[in-house]
Amino acid sequence: MNMKKNTDWKETAKKFLSSLLIDNPSLFEAPRVPGKGRGLDYYATSAFLSVLSTTLQEFHFNHQRLPDLVNLPKTCDHFFKMKFFNQMLMRPNPASKLNARRYIPNEIKDLIRPPVCYWSSTTPTLPPDEEIPAGTYWLKLDLGWHAQEIIEWPPSLAERKRLNEKCESWMNGHRHGLANGEWWYGIGEQRIFLEEDLSEVILQGTEIKIFVRNGHPKIYHNVVYDKEYPGSMTVNYFDANKQIIKGTRSYGRNGEHTITDHILTSIENIDEYLLCAAEIGKPFDLVRVDIFTKKNSKPVLGELSFCVGSGTHVYHPDTMEETIRSALFE
């Protein structure tokens, strides 16, 4: 359904809910599961309608229709459903960058490691100079996205003041994702932390993002960053049989297209990375496990992601969309 420019999205959200209660009432009847949560239960009644109207508008902008939670024809419909109706593990909150390491089982700690965290705090004030060895670090916000900066330690007085102000701005800002249904970023105390600088690993190695469903790797793609053109990257999608999935991915209707080059036909040591991702992903129905790899180095666990791209990804052609949808959700 294509909506008009002057659409009342809150009214649209009310009608969407009313129709869904008739067409798929089981979504609302699922019992609560200890240790898990749903967006439907997380948001207060008044907030839920506001968030739903925002996410419907975002979905329509990217896909030129409203989500279909009855037939679930595409990947984006499933991710929309995930935001509000799927049961998701809450403790320890896997959306926390600092908690991700807690999902590495003892059995694979010889195969993969978490990034080294040198300091973390619930207050936006950097530690004294002498508490951290001199060097380069990533300063990050725990529950959020794009709130990070590479810094040199120790900072000058002026730089310390600027960074403390930035940390305060990060921590006092709106929690990333809450307004568009990614409620898991709202669980737990917010933290600022200093992490080892992985720039060399990222630029000289490969980042591998592995989708794990019920403990089984289903889809994965690599990301190779261009050393000469920051922000540019090469991406290749693979299925569970390690075969290239041909196509392109874009971020919504007007987003940048990532074109797979189909030159890279395999990834060195991929079986080991798939094993690590499978073990880390066992507690979840569906999760994307990010791993940073570099030749002759122990791979490093990145983040755990759930509603990837916030459901804005569009896959072309339809064969790519169908391959990904069926692998992740059937």
Overall residue-averaged pLDDT value: 90
Beta strand %? 15-25%
Structural class: alpha+beta
Helix content, binned percent? 25-40%
Major pleated sheet: 6 strands, antiparallel
> Low-confidence stretches at least 5 residues in length (pLDDT < 50)?
none
Shape: globular
* DSSP E strands, number: 15
The number of helical elements comes to 9
Radius of gyration of CA atoms, rounded to a whole number: 21 Å
Biggest sheet: strand arrangement: 10-9-8-7-13-14
Textual characterization of the structure:
- The chain has 330 residues and is α+β, with helices and mostly antiparallel strands.
- It has nine helices and 15 strands.
- The strands form four sheets. Strands 10-9-8-7-13-14 form a six-stranded antiparallel β-sheet. Strands 3-6-4-5 form a four-stranded antiparallel β-sheet, covered by helices on one side. A three-stranded antiparallel β-sheet has the order 12-11-15.
- Helix 1 (9-23) packs across helix 4.
- It is globular.
- The mean pLDDT is 90.
Task: List descriptors.
globular; single chain; alpha+beta; four-stranded antiparallel β-sheet; six-stranded antiparallel β-sheet
